[in-house]
Specification:
This protein has 397 residues and is of the alpha/beta class. The protein folds into two domains: 185 residues, Rossmann fold (3-Layer(aba) Sandwich), CATH 3.40.50.720; 193 residues, N-(1-d-carboxylethyl)-l-norvaline Dehydrogenase, domain 2 (Orthogonal Bundle). The protein has 15 helices and 14 strands. An eight-stranded mixed beta sheet has the order 5-2-1-6-7-8-11-12, sandwiched between helices. Helix 8 crosses helix 13 and helix 13 runs antiparallel to helix 14. The longest helix is centred in the middle third of the chain and has 25 residues. The radius of gyration is 20 Å and the shape is globular. The model has no long low-confidence stretch (mean pLDDT 94).
Length: 397
């Protein structure tokens, strides 16, 4: 892999605000790419005022500004490494805009990728010709919130470790070493991108908790103090649902492992992931529910809401549903279908969440035949209709 001295950060959200000062303070030239002129203007204004200050409890603040802010994909593509810190629905359009201008040896990836990013990247990039390298960050390392756009961001917590896969798979170790130093995050190499996609924990946690908290919602309007806690609102019943969703994914992974002799050991249970990621932040590990409720990094985070005349109601257009269903749980449901593994819990959550966001992904029998299924990032939408082909594409063969 070529030396990385110039990084383009794509996106203007919470994670981009964290990454920019970290990269700058580690001696890397940073270019920010956003196609939105208003967002670019805010970052330019912030840069001229001194840059973005990152604050977190127990650590001194650091400040850094992007060297360049651009809305031009050709200018953005001129980098050694392209880092997509974007919602999954924006991955395709960003890859498409950058692809014509990318260097043949560029490294490009997303954190987090959610599921199926490697399939989408293979459509736009040159990875299967032995040129470009892609990487798939399993989850977002930081719980973070913008305080002032282009000027300040607060990190509420950081995961103890974050898995990262690459295509080709052999590049993962070098990429983890590089990005760990650049972003002050403990990235650990994963065996392959298939493990990263199936091991996407957001697909379990976010739709699962939303379903558990809102399955009996009857239109109630909450005052600000009544908005339910999200992670700390996990009951034993919700925890059981999360474990059942996780078990269906593990079963599909086990069937792939047996058939193709793959290493998918990194597709782990939701309980193991939570304990591994937040080992120092959890007070009570006696159960999955208690671990969620006593995780300091989740403290005070509430269910996504939108304001109405008399208070707040659930935000059913939150990325917890609009992203983690079509770019997460549906991927695992589709892979399970390829290997013949049953998914009753996934089907239940997908059907409920789909109705909340005005989509229909599944047929009445639970098959992938709903009118909106073409919007999902599933193997079948990339011409992959058997597990053998899935393995080959995911591994860069």
């Amino acid at each position: 892999m070529k030396p990385v001295k110039r990084v383009t950060v794509c996106g203007g959200g919470n994670a981009a605000h964290v990454a920019i000062p970290l990269l700058k303070n580690n001696g890397i030239a940073v270019k920010l790419y956003t196609p939105f002129s208003g967002e670019a203007k805010a970052f330019k204004k912030g840069a001229s005022a001194g840059g973005i200050t990152l604050v977190s409890d127990g650590s001194p603040p650091i400040t850094g500004a992007p060297d360049t802010v651009t809305t031009d994909p050709q200018e953005a593509a001129n980098a050694d490494l392209i880092l997509l810190l974007l919602p999954a629905f924006a991955h395709g359009s960003t890859l498409e805009s950058l692809a014509p201008y990318l260097d043949k040896e560029v490294t490009i990836g997303a954190i987090p990728t959610r599921s199926g990013f490697e399939l989408q990247a293979a459509r736009h990039l040159d990875i299967h010709a032995g040129g470009q390298t892609i990487f798939c960050g399993q989850t977002l390392p930081w719980a973070c919130r913008i305080i002032e756009q282009g000027r300040q961001v607060k990190v509420l917590g950081i995961k103890a470790r974050v898995g990262m896969a690459a295509v080709p798979a052999a590049a993962a170790a070098e990429l983890c070493s590089l990005l760990s130093r650049a972003l002050n995050v403990n990235f650990v190499p994963m065996a392959g991108s298939l493990a990263a996609s199936l091991g996407n924990v957001g697909q379990v946690i976010h739709p699962g908790i939303m379903f558990g908290l809102l399955k009996n919602y009857d239109g109630e309007v909450w005052s600000e103090t009544e908005i339910p806690l999200f992670y700390q609102g996990v009951t034993e019943e919700i925890a059981t649902l999360l474990e059942n969703l996780s078990a269906e994914i593990l079963q599909a992974a086990a069937m792939l492992t047996k058939r193709f002799n793959l290493d998918l050991s990194e597709v782990i249970s939701i309980k193991q992931w939570l304990f591994d990621s937040y080992s120092a932040s959890i007070e009570d590990k006696s159960s999955l529910a208690r671990a969620f409720c006593t995780n300091h990094s989740y403290r005070g985070l509430k269910i996504p809401v939108v304001a109405v005349d008399k208070g707040f109601v659930p935000d059913f257009n939150s990325r917890y549903l609009t992203e983690d269903i079509p770019y997460g749980l549906l991927y695992s449901r589709a892979v399970a279908g390829l290997v013949g593994s049953p998914t009753p819990q996934m089907n239940k959550v997908i059907k409920a969440a789909s109705s909340w966001i005005g989509k229909s992904y599944l047929g009445q029998d639970g098959s992938l035949t709903g009118p909106d299924i073409k919007e999902a990032r599933i193997p079948q939408n990339y011409g992959i209709n058997d597990p053998d082909r899935l393995v080959k594409v995911s591994e860069g063969i």
